[in-house]
Amino acid sequence: MEAIFVLELAVNGALTGLLYSLVAIGLVLIYKSSSVPNLAQGALTMMGAYLVLAFAQQAGAPLWLAIPLAMVTMFGAGLAIERVALRQLAGRPIVMILMMTLGIEIFLRATIMAIWGGASRPMGLGVSYDPLFVGPLLISRVHLIGASVAVGVFVIFLFFFRTRLGIRLRAISDDYTASWSVGIPVEGGIALSWALAAVVATVGGVLWGEVQGVDQALSFLLLKALTVAVLGGLDSIGGALLAGILLGVLENVVSAYLDPLVGGGSRDLVVAAVLILTVMIRPHGLFGRHDIERV
Amino acid sequence: MFYRQAGIRHTDYGADRELFPIRADRYMLAGLAVLALAAPVLVSDLHLNSYILPWLIWTTAALGLNLVLGWAGQLHLGYAAVMAVGAYSGVHAARFGVPWEGAILIAGVSAALIGSLFAVTALRVKGLYLALTTLAMQFVMDWVLTHSPGITGGSHASLQAPPFRLLGQRIDSDAGLYYVALFWCVLVTVFLLNLRRTALGRALVAVREKDYAAAILGVNSFRYKLVAFAASAFIGGITGLLLVACFYFSVSPEQYNVNVSIQVLAMVIIGGLGSIIGSYFGAALILLTPGIANGLFASASDLLGLQLSPETLAHVPNAAYGALIVGFLIVEPLGLGKIYGNIRNYLLVWPFGYVKK
Amino acid sequence: MTAETDAAPILSLNNVEVIYDFVSMAVKGISLSVPEGGMVALLGSNGAGKSTTLKAISGLLKAERGRVSRGEIDFQGQQIVDMPPQARVTMGIVQVLEGRRVFEHLTPDENLEAAAARSLTSGQIAAEKDRIYGYFPRLHERRNAQAGYLSGGEQQMLAIGRALMTQPKLLMLDEPSLGLAPFLVREIFDIIQRINREQGLSVLLVEQNALAALEIVSHGYLIENGRIVMHDTADALRANSDIQEFYLGGSEGKNFRDIKHYSRRKRWLT
After folding, report:
1. Which spans in A213-289 are helix H?
2. Model ipTM value
3. CA-nearest residue of chain C to A177?
4. Closest to B69 (Cβ–Cβ): which among A88, A95, A104?
5. pTM, two decimal places
């Protein structure tokens, strides 16, 4: 009985973890290309979800149209954020870059709240809340779908990074000057990575909106995504996927045992502890490059 | 104009090492000191304790963070956690019956102890990774506070501070509280002003610029990082307690959550890294912006005849605050301190712009 | 200045000055030209301004807070001083950076692909790659290894191959012999010469290894302290006694008085 309980926690944790990976992939994309840790990724996720709702409910578009429309809008928003805010700060101390992304986070979150209000709304994908029975295990349908999408996104990026455009992006993340020397437009590549991260954030926003409702809590996913990204190695998308599973399982299992002891809510503590331990023990994460002193 | 200098020349080292080498600066400071002392007479009680008093306290907090961020160059995204340690330990001590002087010391020391934990991380990593760890520690502190009824008196409770007394004197008037905040702020400012003239200050700057280069020169970089974190936490702890004693009168976890850390960080950055006067400007701007934005937005929407929900208006200040941070970093990443410095440099030798400064 | 160029120049610099960080002048008025289809060497010691000159031509100064403060750079009759680096690559100017700088986390194959001119179709890219592997068969053997783990010579070949993928008209090489064994230097220089001959590619070669460089180029410029101090055909430069003493190591058994004598003459040269 006990073993099955733990297994169920682990499986559902892994599925949730893959959903964290989905948000973390956006962070990794940006960090990979420009070494900017995007603390606004949570707010971008929230913005993506609200845009889908805006297209679906206010403009009356069906969901299958609203989601791509939101993705296109977010693509533009990603380009704009890089062009207006981040490009100016190239070469500045990391603390200013962090502050900039925090400022963007605060601004986006408050602006969204000001426009659409704070009440939580359903995303309305229409996924049934009845759990799936797999043998003796109960599995959440939404999480299963979300996890499959996360794996799908990962596979898409796996292929993308083998295309000519993807290879150029990887070249940029390797060496700016060498990229310039063979005519690769470095600024354009970084802008593209922001745009892609914003699109991925929209996907994350839709799924997380379905899981927990569309409200400002979506932006709090940042801490979890950040932990997943650091644990995976900040510049490794595959790392983010595995780290997501790892964090999801840990969080679910540990908090199940810890919650009764401390009176609930120990999930965030587990996440923060994983972040601290990762940085202290293995700062470059599971699969990151070792050159972390480029700050 | 009012500096009336034709360049800065010193005839001996003493003059060069003075705190304020320029005479006009000294006059200006004397004037400011008189104004500061006379403020309770000049300014209404409302303005004194809802604008000037919090401004002084938050300035002190920003100065404390600036010590570790601007001087020692160590990223710290968990300053509110340190302030919380000071506030809770001090309030508990005072409630236990320790005199407030002792409680203030306890606040400083306990915050310095916890703050040194942050420094242990700094031994291992730096830059982005240090920022992330300190941020995570802030989250841990948030969690501990909201989940430890023993410390906070329940998850949503606030803990009342006992009546504030110093030197046997009950302090409850607006003017009295103001003078306490002023005294602490001036003390910290003078400490930081002097810091740059000391070996400690120079060692901190050396560690900031390149820690391993400093280590090669014989500066024990870990020791100085530890000193910076501990000193800054000491200041933060006392400031956190004074915030309760002089302004909030009670303490609850959300007064010291992650948003507060970000707010103090924003004060430092908008003020300018390592700039003392910048911290004053930065704190003022961050505190005033939401109110101003709210007023402007409300009157603008009145003017245009828009019907805005109260919810919209409630989020406008925050949006303005975020926009302010973004805008400042785009326009002048070195902050208000740098802008002040530029104006001052221009006026310093005005009208002799060609003079070497 | 006796050397006359027989073909029209593909590149000419006229009195170019470069300033770093608004203050320090690294290049103080350089004029030089590379004939269409020719091979020219830019020789000089450390810090003379050779790399800076190349970066002024390729536009990479901007990555180092430098800029051309005066003078003209003319490529095929067009002024390029204000163009971004990408535009110059599209026009056909490419620089192989000093110290190789391959994309370390990519494979050699991907290194070449990353640099491929954007107008090429994938079929053309494959053909280009084959052409480059034809010049550098060793790269073909290691095409799927991680570039960071290639040997120094292989990385230099990859850097040159990568530059060739941009379909340049002018190839600029910054110290390709740096840190390589003499036989590898010979091999690489032979290939450069072959490409020059077969494809009519113009080459501007920056070298400290003057002996090797003067064997393959037709003309050479000597740069010192940010100024051109000598310009002649390769044969004439090789025969020049000053060059022999200062750069070719061709003098023997000098005593201390003679060394003082060099520095006096060297100053005169500048």
Report:
1. 221-232, 237-262, 267-281
2. 0.88
3. C63
4. A95
5. 0.87
